[in-house]
Amino acid sequence: MQEKKKIIKEKLEKERDMLLEELRDMGKLNPETGEWEATPEELDFPHSDQNDMADRFEDFESKSSMLKTLEPRLQNILKAIKGLNRESFGKCEVCKKDIEMARLEANPAARTCKQHLEK
Ligand SMILES: [Zn+2]
């Protein structure tokens, strides 16, 4: 189980880093709210016209919605990484046997084996 745990942990940490990179591309973490906020594109020149303003607004909106999809994924991964420390990690809650590796890789938060899939 230790070996399995290590493999999954590395996989999750890689995913976390990739997500963080994507998030940082589009926004920044507000330390006060703990939420990711889109960063508006820098103004190239001070007197931009209406079209520029609309473009920028659109860009900001699409970044915001991307952040909203990415953030829960990041939270899930962080939760899964924490879950690796559970004593019961990788053990089926029903039959107490080891959960299949493929299943754990797909869902590190799985609490049951394939046979006892939670409904
Ligand atoms: Zn089971």
**N- to C-terminal distance:** 25 Å
List low-confidence stretches: none
User: What's the helix count?
Assistant: 3
Q: What is the overall pLDDT average?
A: 89
Q: How many independent structural domains?
A: 2
Radius of gyration: 20 Å
The share of residues in extended strands comes to 5-15%
- Helix fraction, binned, reads 40-55%
Major sheet details: 2 strands, antiparallel
Topology pattern, helix = H, strand = E: HEEHH
Total beta strand runs: 2
Instruction: Based on Cα principal axes, name the global outline.
Output: elongated
Could you tell me which ligands this complex binds, including any ions or cofactors? Answer: zinc ion
Going by helix content, strand content and strand pairing, the class is mainly alpha
Strand order in the largest sheet: 1-2
Put the structure in a nutshell.
By secondary structure, the chain is mostly helical. It is built from 3 helices and 2 strands. It folds into 2 domains: 2-85; 87-119, no CATH class.
